[in-house]
């Protein structure tokens, strides 16, 4: 099988050649290979793979010309002898289908790796213009929120309602509370949202106070920026991509 599929070590060793090939065949793409080298040695050792970003210009052009400026972000763990994490930025096309925009293989989900990802993503899309209502959906992964606030401070942040509910349920369980939580999240009007919160307050005042601490524009449809024309309240687009990736027989990048 190795003679057919190659080996992990050989594949990582040829990343620089792959980067050059992508730039040659897909002009305008952004490909960044980051390696570690032991600077203390008199003769530098072989570079060790650290991070790799891939943003194809063909995908970028399709996203910018045919999709709204809405992206879901998440990371999934890679299998194999070298492990690591695959970060991805996923958009939605006109049919609400997944539209992958950019990927990166990094050592872990941390602020440094997310900064690496966003700096390259910014180069790919020509900068996150303040004229566009850039909207980012996430599960508030470690380091991601801080990175967005630093690199794209004007971005509109949405929090995945499914993850908010998971935290909500751990403190305030109950069928009625669940029903009114999702009614509040999916409401297209302030009246519907306020009614759902009122019912939650009747059932559990502490649950009501807990939800008030989260800005409505982060998790309820009625408060979303109308310019984006996207009513997603969960980060299922990223979860779906991760599930698809996880089902591949060989998780080789």
From TrEMBL:
<dbReference type="GO" id="GO:0006313">
    <property type="term" value="P:DNA transposition"/>
</dbReference>
<keyword id="KW-0233">DNA recombination</keyword>
<keyword id="KW-0238">DNA-binding</keyword>
<dbReference type="GO" id="GO:0003677">
    <property type="term" value="F:DNA binding"/>
</dbReference>
<dbReference type="InterPro" id="IPR018289">
    <property type="entry name" value="MULE_transposase_dom"/>
</dbReference>
<dbReference type="InterPro" id="IPR001207">
    <property type="entry name" value="Transposase_mutator"/>
</dbReference>
<dbReference type="Pfam" id="PF10551">
    <property type="entry name" value="MULE"/>
</dbReference>
<protein>
    <recommendedName>
        <fullName>MULE transposase domain-containing protein</fullName>
    </recommendedName>
</protein>
<feature type="domain" description="MULE transposase">
    <location>
        <begin position="71"/>
        <end position="167"/>
    </location>
</feature>
<keyword id="KW-0815">Transposition</keyword>
<dbReference type="GO" id="GO:0004803">
    <property type="term" value="F:transposase activity"/>
</dbReference>
């Amino acid at each position: 099988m190795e003679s057919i599929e190659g080996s992990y070590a050989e594949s990582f060793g040829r990343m620089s050649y792959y980067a050059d090939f992508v730039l040659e065949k897909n002009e305008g793409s952004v490909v960044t290979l980051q390696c570690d080298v032991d600077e203390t040695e008199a003769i530098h050792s072989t570079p060790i793979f650290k991070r790799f970003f891939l943003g194809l210009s063909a995908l970028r052009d399709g996203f910018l010309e045919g999709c709204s400026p809405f992206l879901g972000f998440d990371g999934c763990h890679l299998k194999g002898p070298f492990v690591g994490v695959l970060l991805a930025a996923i958009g939605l096309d006109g049919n609400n289908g997944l539209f992958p925009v950019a990927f990166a293989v990094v050592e872990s989900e941390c602020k440094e790796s997310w900064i690496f990802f966003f700096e390259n993503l910014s180069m790919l899309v020509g900068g996150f213009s303040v004229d566009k209502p850039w909207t980012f959906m996430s599960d508030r992964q470690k380091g991601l929120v801080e990175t967005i606030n630093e690199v794209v401070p004007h971005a509109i942040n949405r929090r995945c309602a499914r993850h908010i509910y998971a935290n909500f349920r751990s403190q305030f369980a109950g069928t009625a509370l669940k029903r009114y939580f999702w009614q509040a999240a999916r409401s297209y009007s302030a009246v519907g949202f306020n009614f759902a919160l009122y019912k939650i307050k009747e059932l559990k005042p502490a649950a009501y106070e807990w939800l008030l601490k989260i800005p409505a524009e982060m998790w309820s449809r009625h408060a979303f920026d109308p310019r984006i024309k996207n009513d997603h309240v969960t980060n299922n687009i990223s979860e779906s991509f991760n599930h698809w990736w996880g089902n591949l027989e060989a998780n080789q990048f």
